[in-house]
Amino acid sequence: MYTQAKPESKNGNFVGTAESAFLFVCPTPFCANLTRMPLTPQALAALRQDYSQRGLDLSDMAPDPLVQFQQWLAEAHAQQLIEPNAMTLATVDSTGQPWTRTVLLKICDARGFAFFTNYNGTKGAHLAGESRAAITFWWSALERQVNITGRVTKASRAESEAYFSSRPIASQLGAWASPQSSTIPDRSTLEEAFIQAKERFANAPIPCPEHWGGYRLEPETVEFWQGRRSRLHDRLRYVKGADGGWSITRLAP
Ligand SMILES: Cc1cc2nc3c(=O)[nH]c(=O)nc-3n(C[C@H](O)[C@H](O)[C@H](O)COP(=O)(O)O)c2cc1C
Question: 59 CA to middle of ligand 1, Å?
Fold first, then answer.
């Protein structure tokens, strides 16, 4: 429980400025050990990490950014990170407002970066109107970021069905149950829809819903970012030329 405190409080619990002063009031003795103080503005501003693991040279880079990406993804995977294939996907709505959310990279090959979702959801509506999108990966344990821009197209039906059938049954049922991005009255509505889907398909194979499938971002730029000391990070950006070949330039951090 947090209560507003007077800035002049001298009890040792005061944190923050006059505008954002909060006092943590623990309601039970038990939670005394679990106290989580709000981060003060000063503490937030002081959060910083100096990156020092390694550098990035042009001579280190594969000519094809997808090959280079696969190397970095494999290294992130080898670190046993949780979901190294999680990526932030940015899409743009009809007013030009960008939106982001996390999705999982499920196919990465010479064609690009594919993820699976509900075509009727918000990102699906955005991509139907504007196919340009962007993706960011951040692997903190490796002090690495990858930023990708490009155009998104739907995966083939066969590819979507093949991936859908490889998913756990509960995830398949979830795809039928969830009207992704729609407002729903309460959680029980969703759970009821899941039970109905379960009853509907009983023990039969669950087909891939028409409104569910893959999207693939075909990259036009791919930037590899490696954290370095003193914020002098390395940034190497691949840009696809009109002939389909890639050029690489170094950017200031
Ligand atoms: C780690 C993580 C992975 C996710 N993976 C997916 C995914 O692969 N596909 C998907 O549709 N949603 C995924 N989500 C949920 C999305 O972030 C998002 O809530 C959902 O797709 C609805 O987005 P939209 O309303 O912008 O369409 C994931 C969320 C997290 C946190």
Answer: 36
Domains in the chain (CATH in brackets) are 2-46 (no CATH), 58-251 (2.30.110.10)
Q: Which two tokens stand for residue 78?
A: 């080898």
Residue whose C-alpha is closest to residue 213's, from 153, 168, 131, 169: 153
List for the chain the helix, strand, coil content (%; round to 5). Answer: 30, 30, 40
Inter-axis angle of helices 157-166 and 169-177, nearest 10 = 120
Nearest residue (CA) to ligand 1, atom 18: 101
Which of 16-20, 104-108, 240-244, 246-250 shows the lowest per-residue confidence on average (mean pLDDT)? Answer: 16-20
Residue 37, pLDDT score: 85
Nearest to 135 by CA among 210, 188, 65, 205: 65
Three-state DSSP class for residue 92: strand
**Global pTM value:** 0.87
Residue 197 backbone dihedrals phi, psi, to 5 degrees: -65, -40
- Answer whether 123 contacts ligand 1 (Cβ < 6 A): yes
Q: Extract the tokens encoding 6.
A: 């007077």
Spatial separation of the C-alpha atoms in residues 3 and 22, rounded to whole Å: 6
- CB neighbour list of residue 106: distance below 8 Å, 6 or more residues apart: 85, 114, 115, 116, 163, 214
Which of 83, 88, 97, 103, when mutated, tests ligand 1's pocket best, judged by the most ligand atoms within 8 Å of its CB? 103
Which of helix, strand or coil describes residue 177? helix
74 exposed, middle or buried (CB, 10 Å; 0-12, 13-18, 19+)?
exposed
Bridge partners, 213 (sequence order): 117
Per-residue pLDDT reduced to its tens digit, 153-162: 999 999 999 9
The pLDDT assigned to 21 comes to 36
